[in-house]
Amino acid sequence: MRSLGAILKHPDDLYPLIKLKVAVMQAEKRIPPEPHWGFCYSMLHKVSRSFALVIQQLDTDLRDAICVFYLVLRALDTVEDDTNIATEVKVPILMAFHRHIYDREWHFACGTKDYKVLMDQFHHVSTAFLELGSSYQKVIEDITMRMGAGMAKFICKEVETTEDYDEYCHYVAGLVGLGLSNLFHASGKEDMASDSLSNSMGLFLQKVNIIRDYLEDINEIPKSRMFWPRQIWSKYVNKLEDLKYEENSDKAVQCLNDMVTNALMHAEDCLKYMSALRDPAIFKFCAIPQIMAIGTLALCYNNIEVFRGVVKMRRGLTAKVIDRTKSMSDVYGAFFDFSCMLKSKVDDNDPNAKKTKSRLEDILKICRDSGTLNKRKSYVLGSEPTFNPTMILIFVVMLAILLAYLSANRGNDM
């Protein structure tokens, strides 16, 4: 019912949602028949449907390399995230993970749900890895080694300063950006991007995730995961977990806004990186997550709900981003619209208001200077309900067609 209400409130979400659903179904049908590749792509769909959809548009060799790269790093991240693993067990695994990917027999029991399956049957990922070209293997091994070492370092070290924060985010996400740039270059489809720009692409996404996932991380059992830097949160509360308590709501929001302002410093680099991409499929693969990130920041800013539950973009808006993102003008338009949304929420009494506005103005200027904003479709929609009888009728008809399509395909699969 919540999804129905969202569609009635934003009826123009319907068509992109249907397109996305059909695209996901088609992508799931293109899973390779070989057991190891079938496992890899099936697992990709389970742990990240939107990522799996975008990756399917890449050429086969690069698609396979990025699929394996993603699953190797998800497995590494699963080991890091599992707070039930003792430090003396976890650190050696992280440090040696780049060697395990060459071992068809290696697996390790940890994680939950789909991630547990990934770890239990990791031999499929290793088998797929060993079928990749040597240039792809070298990139994946190098990034896995560096990331594992960085994760191991921060198992024994808290994130104290903003420099620590940037270093941690570099290890767990900036290196992903570097790895992807190297894979793009190895495929012959892109020039080699600078390490600093590649790093910023990862840091922007990771910082958004850390901001959005505050409550989930702080409530982790048996031990909280704390990634917000003490240098920021200690200006507002005595302990990081204090931010979730209602009596600290004002300070929590100020701290949140400080964190969002910190993340915004990477947006300009991200726009510069994306503007240099040449291959349309690679461009879309990179651009969609970045637009989702700036959109999530706009929703999180000044929003106490970050400390009460999950704040994320509605499914219809996500579908629109995936459907509409085709060129750099679309990216400039989306960054412009979400930055305007965020700027409208800045309270001049906020301790970081001046810095926040300055960083947003820098982003807005880049978007304006692109000269493409008149070509954009706005991503910022009014919040008032738009109950239109015609749109409701179209929704009912299209929903019936979709259900009939799904039913027919289910019957064909039996």
Automatic annotation (TrEMBL):
Pathway: Terpene metabolism; lanosterol biosynthesis; lanosterol from farnesyl diphosphate: step 1/3. It comes from the Eukaryota. The chain crosses the membrane at residues 387-408. Its EC number is 2.5.1.21. Its cofactor is Mg(2+). PANTHER family: FARNESYL-DIPHOSPHATE FARNESYLTRANSFERASE, SQUALENE SYNTHASE. This is Squalene synthase. It comes from Coffea arabica (Arabian coffee).
